[in-house]
Amino acid sequence: MFNYNGRRFDIVDTLGQVDKDKNGNIVPHADKKGNLVDNTGRRINNKGYLIDEFGNVVDKDGRQIFENKHLENQEIPKIFPFTKFNVKNVLGEFEMDPLGIPILDKDKNGNYVDNQKRRVNSKGYLIDTQGNVIDKNGKVTFKKKLLDNEDDIPKVFRTGLLKSDTASSLSRLMSEIERN
Amino acid sequence: MLGAEDPKTGLFKDSSGNPTNQRGYLIDPKTGDIINNHNNQKMFDKKDLDERGEVPAPFNLEKHNFNPHAVRGEFDFDRNGKAVVVKNKDGSFSDKRGSKVSSRGYRLGSDGSVVDNNGRKKFDKAHMT
User: Nearest chain A Cα to B118, which residue?
Assistant: First the structure.
């Protein structure tokens, strides 16, 4: 599994040691300050992930895996090597300069737009009025809070680590067979 | 797969007649919240959905949403913090309650797929490494 930086990690290393009830739900404890802790006294969130004092999810060695602000209802994103993502679905249409910087026009309000006059950010990603990255169908794909300070989407989605979803069914099948 | 719209009411239903939104997600007909298809518990508040009825990011991007505790057996842990997975005589593995698990402690269904506490398949066997 990958984190947003494209670093591989074992999800088991992010789990607290907790008891479970008869339905299999975790039963965390609370320390004197009211923080949830696992059976060994390490802090966990309400989904059972090891966290640091800021709520960032960490592994058993204390290394940060996901920032608190990137969690949804305290749950981490699950990004696998077989997760399919095609960056073209969230990019506008534009030319690049020799340095690879998008050449973008601006509308009358000063917002970046692509060749089809759709709103994009400075990196050329299609965005909505809130700055969230959307796909060609207008569906929010990356909330603005996931973008870095240069308006780029998380590294794992732009470095070729994931499978593109443009392959034909046959080539996808062949890829699966080769992998197995 | 999208829900089928009833032309009389404008409401959407799945093939079993359960109410869905326009994207095919099962909903609580009273609130419009998206619910779990196994235990009917709320998964997403209606206000968190977009105008197309799609679930919020990142859940609309990555389709393998689960809590790892729900797909793992129950174990004691050794002094290194590693789950003690019991190996049976036949070579299979169990947790401390006797549930079938993989060598790494994930709950397994009868076909070798990873299942959650409710026995629902979360990962196909083909995705296991």
Answer: A23
Domain limits, chain B: 1-64, 67-129
Secondary structure element (H or E) that encloses residue A175, with its range: helix A169-179
Q: Which two tokens stand for residue B64?
A: 């393998």
Q: Assess contact for B12 and B19: CB atoms under 8 A.
A: yes
Of B61, B81, B117, the CB nearest to A141: B61
- The low-confidence residues of chain A, meaning pLDDT below 70, are 164-180
- How far is CA B74 from each of CA A14, A146, B52, rounded to the nearest angstrom? 16, 34, 40
User: Tokens 């129950």 sit at which residue?
Assistant: B74
* Burial class of residue B76 (count of CB atoms within 10 Å of its CB; 0-12, 13-18, 19+): exposed
Residue B11 to residue A68: CA distance in whole angstroms? 38
CB contact under 8 A, B67 and A47: yes
Measured between alpha carbons, how far is B72 from A22 in angstroms, rounded to an integer? 14
Identify all chain B residues contacting A74, using CB atoms and an 8 Å cutoff. Answer: none
Contact A153, A146 (CB under 8 A): yes
Task: Note the ipTM here.
Answer: 0.75
Q: What is the pLDDT of residues A40-87, one digit of tens each?
A: 999 999 999 999 999 999 999 999 999 999 898 899 988 888 787 889
A106: distance to nearest CA of chain B, Å? 27
Query: For B12-66, how does the pLDDT look when each residue is reduced to its tens digit (9 = 90+)?
Result: 988 888 999 988 899 999 999 999 887 888 888 998 887 778 787 656 665 557 8
Enter the pTM of the model: 0.74
Return the exposure string of B19-50: e unless at least 16 CB atoms fall within 10 Å of the residue's CB, then b: bbbebebbbeeeeebbbeeeeeeebbeeeebb
Spatial neighbors of A10 by CB under 8 A, at least 6 apart, are A1, A59
